[in-house]
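Example 9 (inverse folding). The structure is encoded as follows.
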């Protein structure tokens, strides 16, 4: 699968994130990029596409199905999930560089991938995009919210209003990567609140990656308690 078939449709709009003028270079191996994109053909061909994910939580399935067994037994608080990639090489190199090291070129590539998938997704589009917030202490430490930086160009290109302050993380939490599934749910319980605005019936939460979905489900629960009828989830990658 060539990168042109995955992200080209969203690439030009996401160039506005940085405005780089240097020739494209693969962010994974350093080779020359393909078609002005910062990924070479070899690395692009290794992107694992999430072709048959659960429509509710986007977990990769061996065969196409409407919902996975887990969602049928215990559905998350969000209603649908879009995750064009499976978390693995080379996404596991690109996402940490963007999330923790301020690599905006990696962010541009990832945003283009999500934009392409969102542009082609069937059904009604959300009326507002809401990035998953960081706690103010984490935001001061990191200097930026990777979910917001992903959401900005997507909102701009799709003409969907962006609500970066609709959700607030009202208390700090441990890093979810340090915890198991049950502790992840406990960790984020009560960590979010809706602040200061009336939201439309249909919104989409934007984040970089979904692992168990605990954070996104808690955000969706809080939004629905505030009156939102439908919450979609848009992430770049889903952990298998």
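The amino acid assigned to each position is listed next.
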């Amino acid at each position: 699968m060539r990168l042109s078939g995955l992200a080209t449709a969203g690439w030009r709009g996401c160039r506005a994130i940085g405005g780089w003028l240097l020739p494209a270079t693969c962010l994974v191996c350093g080779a020359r990029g393909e078609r002005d994109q910062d990924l070479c053909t070899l690395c692009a061909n290794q992107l694992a596409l999430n072709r048959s994910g659960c429509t509710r939580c986007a977990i990769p399935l061996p065969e196409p199905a409407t919902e996975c067994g887990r969602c049928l037994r215990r559905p998350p608080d969000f209603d649908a999930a879009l995750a064009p990639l499976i978390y693995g090489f080379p996404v596991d190199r690109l996402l940490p560089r963007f999330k923790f090291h301020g690599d905006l070129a990696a962010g541009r590539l990832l945003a283009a991938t999500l934009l392409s998938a969102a542009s082609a997704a069937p059904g009604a589009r959300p009326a507002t995009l809401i990035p998953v917030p960081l706690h103010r202490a984490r935001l001061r430490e990191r200097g930026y919210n990777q979910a917001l930086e992903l959401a900005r160009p997507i909102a701009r290109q799709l003409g969907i209003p962006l609500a970066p302050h609709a959700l607030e993380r009202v208390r700090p939490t441990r890093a979810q990567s340090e915890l198991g599934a049950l502790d992840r749910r406990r960790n984020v319980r009560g960590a979010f609140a809706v602040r200061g605005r009336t939201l439309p019936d249909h919104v989409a939460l934007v984040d970089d990656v979904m692992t168990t979905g605990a954070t996104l489900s808690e955000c969706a629960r809080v939004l629905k308690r505030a009156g939102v009828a439908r919450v979609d989830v848009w992430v770049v990658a889903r952990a298998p």
